[in-house]
Design goal:
Length: about 210
């Protein structure tokens, strides 16, 4: 490459791959798969909490992508468009399973103001006292609607306007669902902390009851 020739950007390279894949280039689609497979699988896993389901849903998402990539018009970032497709695949799967749902049409008017990302002191102490398994279990207990928005915002780092586009809901609705998800997480983590406290007390009582030698 000559010194005066600019190196292709990642976005430019991806745009070229997308254009080729839309024309039926299987090699280009395979490269898109390699670029996005880990994040797609990670999103499926966080939304389902099940490794086997996440693997199946990631495959289904890429099958959907193969069928629908010709409909991508570049009106949003490809990653945002792809994540919306993945979220729809996961939510459809959860609906078929008949799991507890939270309608994204249920907007709490009191939550139209931005929900602060910062946790309070009580939450920091609480989060520091539980392990990752307890946190993962608490996230897995969230209804799918709450879990999807919590994962997209607090884990994946999307803004509310991006989530609204991915989930096909309003910005106010996204903020409301995130607020409710965090409340449910705090309750679940406090229950987990209580169970850990009881276990510790039982262990201490068990040691105190042992006869001295």
């Amino acid at each position: 490459m000559s010194q005066g020739q600019a190196a292709p950007t990642k976005a430019g390279s991806e745009s070229h791959l997308i254009a080729c894949a839309q024309r039926g280039d299987e090699d280009a689609f395979a490269q898109l798969y390699e670029l996005h497979k880990r994040r797609v699988y990670s999103l499926c896993l966080r939304m389902t909490g099940d490794v086997a389901e996440a693997e199946d849903l990631a495959q289904e998402a890429f099958l959907q992508l193969f069928r629908k990539i010709s409909t991508f018009r570049g009106e949003s970032a490809f990653s945002t468009w792809l994540h919306r497709l993945v979220v729809n695949v996961v939510l459809m799967h959860l609906r078929k399973k008949g799991l507890q749902q939270v309608s994204l049409d249920e907007v709490d008017p009191s939550q139209e103001e931005p929900v602060k990302r910062e946790y309070g002191d009580d939450d920091r102490r609480l989060l520091s006292s539980v392990d990752r398994i307890t946190l993962k279990d608490a996230i897995d207990e969230l209804p799918p609607g709450y879990r999807a928005i919590f994962v997209l915002h607090d884990v994946e780092g999307y803004e509310h306007n991006e989530i609204a586009h991915i989930m096909n809901c309003s910005v106010g609705n996204s903020k409301s669902q995130l607020h409710k998800a965090r409340l449910k997480l705090r309750e679940a983590l406090r229950r987990g902390q209580g169970r850990l406290g009881q276990t510790d007390r039982h262990r201490q009582e068990g040691f105190s009851d042992r006869p001295e030698r």
